[in-house]
Amino acid sequence: MTKMKKAKEENKERQMCLTLADVQKLEEVTALMTRGNEVLKAIGYTEHSKRHAAKVSVTAQQILLDLGYEKHLAELAGIAGFMHDIGNAVNRNDHAHNGAILAYNILKEAGMPLDDCITVMTAIGHHDEKTGTAVDPVSAALILADKTDVRRNRVQKSIKENFDIHDRVNYAVLSASLEIILEKRLIQMDLRLDDSICTLMDYFEIFLERMILCKRAAEVLDCRFKLVANGSKLC
Prior knowledge:
By secondary structure, the protein is an alpha+beta fold. It has 10 helices and 4 strands, in the order αααααααααββαββ. The protein has a 4-stranded mixed sheet with strand order 1-2-3-4. Helix 4 runs antiparallel to helix 5 and helix 4 crosses helix 8. It starts with a helix and ends with a strand. The model has no long low-confidence stretch (mean pLDDT 90).
């Protein structure tokens, strides 16, 4: 890194004022996130709590760092990842757009520079497969981190007989990992499913749109996306 580039990056970091650690301490963000997960649990959705937010945040940030993006953008990806589901407190429908507007106002009030507020807002507003797509590195990293967070402990129902297909798919996950193979410009999701609980066809029934979204997100990052499930390449 040249001295000039390093100076510019350090200047951006100083200007950002608000870090991921600061956002994680904001009472309003925590309250919206908690209420959003309560709403989703009440209507039978999988977990969208602080645990999901923290995992998405860490993964989104790491994706950009691993691909060589500047720390400033990676920090914004982490912030977007942490706040991306706060719109569920309003309503599950259109939660991405509601969450984007909420996040913009919270971050602006907390002192984040306008350009950064807009970057986070855009990423959150585009993270849902029904209405959005990757439009820049931050939104791409958020999408990849969010759509690949499948795991058994995201199921919030206690009675298996009441599981819907989303519950079965998440409950069937034995392991899921996201790997960046830099020399091949490849972002690969490795998934192991218990096929006595759900089949690969069940997975694709609900995740096809999400995987297409991940493919687009990888392309924005100048990479390819690959999904390997139970040892077989699926996309």
